[in-house]
Write a structure and sequence with these properties.
Helices cover about 15% and strands about 30% of the residues.
Amino acid sequence: MQKPKLIAAGAVLAVAVAAGVWALVAAGDDPDVALPTASADAARPTASADVADPVGVLKAAAAKADDQPYKLTVGSGGVDGDATVLLWDPTAKRGLETTSLKVPTGVVKIERLTTGADVYVRVTAPDRRVPVWDGKTWWHVGTPGAPAVKQGLDNTRLASTLGAPSGVRQTAAREYAGTLDLRESGAVLGSGVSKVLGDRAGAVPFTAAVDEQGRLVRYRIELASEQSQTAQLDLTYSDFGLAVSADPPAADLVGEDPPANIPGA
């Protein structure tokens, strides 16, 4: 199997886990993966979309991301269609994150299920050359009382990167643009951010939009690949207040002691 090409810097971050998993397939390893869900925003009153205080509006929107359940769609701005969809209840710390990664033989699907402190990962591959990617086994990668392991991009915390914007200007009704300092965001964006952004991590362009309630609904972080090709990390928040189902898998479908080629193991 050959590795799928990286779309660009945005894809490196947006599907960091999936890309790493597929790399293992190319190397002939055997993994299985699942994903968590993401969190939403909505309860606190908006900082009254004050034209005079766009920074305040964005900080308030970022802070509201953990107020209620939501759906988050994460894309890379690439043409290959790789994407992640997350359904997240930030209060209960429960949800499901599903990443679809196009590869030469089809699509690898990685699901990460978070049920409080317990985290399970399941991977479905387009062929059976990797037995543990059977699309059935949920590998237990987090245990009660221990912090849940998350590799690569932490989609449940992406809104927090908008907490300290600079040079913000309003570009349209409830739409803004500016720059971000992502040098301290490695825990959210994954270790790949430093490799992708390098010295540019201190001033990364972004655009964002809030709804009438001051909730973040669109957020794009502008990135550049190593070849200086533009790429983006596109986020769309929606379905605020949705009911999130995240029950533990049936016992006979759970695998303990996951192999090293399972994301989060």
